[in-house]
Structure formats: C-alpha cells, structure tokens
Amino acid sequence: MQKESNLMYWAKVGIKINLKAVGANHNLRDELRKLENRNMIVGYDVTHSTNMPFKAAGEPSLLGLVASINIELAQWPAVSWEQPARQEMLSDQLLDAFKSRLELWQKHNDDRLPAHILIFRDGVSESQFTQVLDRELPTIRQACRAKYTATQPKLTVVVSAKRHQTRFDPTTKEDMSASGNVLNGTVVDRGVTQVRYWDFFLTAHHAIKGTARPAHYTVLLDEIFRERYNAKAADELERLTHELRYLFGRATKAPDTVWEAGLGSDDEI
Q: Which ranges carry the Piwi domain (predicted)?
C-alpha cells in the first residue's frame, strides 16, 4: 500500500515538473484541427474573500485569467490582478491582460495571431449576462483591435456556472456509473434548458460520493460554431467542452477550463 501511494505521489510530481518544463501531459486528438489550428481558448474567474461579514469585507477580489498558447492546449500561462472587494465585473486591467495573452500566443505560433478565440467566463449569474456583453466583451474586442491589423478574430463567449441545484439521474442501468450517477460525458441540452439562451448541462467528472453536479454552460455570443458547423454547432461545442475537461495538466481528473483561472487567482493570494 505504501509503495502504491509513493508511486501516485511521484506521478503527480512528475506531471507538474513536465508542465513547468513546458511539456504536454495531455493532448486532444483532432477536435481543434477542424478550426484550422489557429485557436486560442481563454478562461477567467474572480475570487472573493470568504467567511467575512459583508460590511467588513475590505479585502480585494482577485482575478485569474489563463489562455492556451499552442495547438495541443497543454500550456495555459496565467495572469492575475486585484480589483475592488466583491466586484465581479472585470476592471480596466482586462485590456492589458488580454493583450498580453495574444502576444504570448503570437510568440509561440510563428508570429501569427489566433483566428478563433473561445472564452469561458465563470462566476456570473444570469442577471449579469448583459454586463459581460456590455462591459467585458468590448474590452476584449478593444484588445484585439490593438493587435490585429486586418481581419479581427471570431469570438465565442460561454458562461460556466456550478452553483445551481440541477441534478440528473440515469434512466437505465446501462447509463449508470458505479456510484449510481449518470456516465461521464452526459449532456442535457433540452427539456430543462432555457428557451431564450443556448445553454446545456455537462457532467464530465466522476462523483465519488453523492449525486454528481453538472456544469451549466450558457453561450452569450457565438461567431465560430454556428458559422462553421451549422446544425451541428451545439454538438461540436459540447464535445469540445467535454474534452477540454481532460486537459488539466496537474491531475488526471476532469475540472473545468475556468478551474485553471481560479488557480491563477488563488496563486495571487
């Protein structure tokens, strides 16, 4: 038992060392090659101070932003900064942060810039969707205009939410995991979804105990998938989102893309 435990420990150390050496621990097979290899995926999240009375909470909120830099999606360099306490919408520093990610992508891709940028935004409620489109998206477009001299990149913005009460149960034994949950990769995009939004629920992880909580994704803007895949746009976005959950280089579990952004803000603490 001790020997097995040591092997697991050193395996985790090994994959972390490989990441720091700019190595690739996990690769997607061919999903992004369908988008011509010029793709950047971005995730960002805001972390607020916890266990503090609202009026007394003066500690700044911390923001972490990660972005891929290669076709393998194996490296996600992070940038983080502080902003006023309990402020969920990003400050003006988003402009410089996003420009720095574009420059880093350009450096690792023969001085080219990405043609498609898929953005995952975590931590906002439905009432804040308009603010994301009215405040954060224009800043991102401004960063792109500062770097692109000709055609602007196509953007897709997806909000990820984990704090909800929706759960799903398998209807047959064939669709049931060992813990009694739905199988990994289960997607629900009809019946319980909203009419006015393109949204879906994805259960990408294995719950050791209790009922698995799916992530809820809502597409606020799409300039990539509908244009390229037409009627199959939802299937392609759902498949890519699921596979991204297996690219977290520091572990073999399946966290969300915005989880790395959360780690970036945690490192700032």
A: 1-258
Q: Are strands 39-47 and 61-67 parallel, antiparallel or unpaired?
A: antiparallel
Q: Is 84 helix (H, G, I), strand (E, B) or coil?
A: coil
Question: Using one digit for the tens of pLDDT, what is the confidence trace for 164-201?
Answer: 878 888 888 888 888 888 888 889 999 888 888 999 99
Q: Which two tokens stand for residue 217?
A: 């994704």
Task: Strands of 86-174 (E only): list them.
Answer: 116-122, 154-161
What's the rounded Cα separation, in Å, for the pair 61 and 265? Answer: 9
Tell me the backbone φ, ψ of residue 142, rounded to 5 degrees.
-65, -40
Q: Going edge to edge, which strands form the sheet with 78-83?
A: 78-83, 61-67, 39-47, 116-122, 154-161, 215-222, 198-203, 186-188
Structure tokens, 34: 């369908």
pTM of the model: 0.82
